[in-house]
Automatic annotation (TrEMBL):
Domain of life of the native organism: Bacteria
Keyword Cell division: no
Keyword line: DNA-binding
UniProt organism field: Rhodopseudomonas palustris
InterPro entries, A to Z: ChsH2_C, ChsH2_Znr, NA-bd_OB-fold, Thioester_dehydratase-like
GO MF, one example: DNA binding
Name of the protein in question: DNA-binding protein
Entry-linked PANTHER family: BLR3430 PROTEIN
All residue ranges annotated as the ChsH2 rubredoxin-like zinc ribbon domain in the record: 9-43
Amino acid sequence: MSEMAMPDWICGEPKIAYQRCGGCGAVQYFRREFCAACGSEDLTTLVASGDGVVCAATLVHRAATAEARAHVPFKIVLVDCAEGFRMMAHGAADLAIGDRVHAGFTQFTGQLVPFFEKADR
């Protein structure tokens, strides 16, 4: 299996995959065939811990699609993940900037998506 083919939430597996460059050490999310920082193809795909800190949050009241209307209102968060990358995902309604969070997974419009909640720590 190629590094790019490692299944994660995009493929229906409850994991968040990211890459670390063997050339410059940069981390990146979403996965690519090359390092966005230096262009190297020496990438290792890893599974994230799911830990992070909320750096932005918004409550969505208008759904972009008819399927998503059943979920409004819902929270979207930007999370600075422990591994050094930032990702956008769904989050619990009570999340605020600065909250320590941990990722789980939920169904949204028929797809498995990461869902962050306050960490127990």
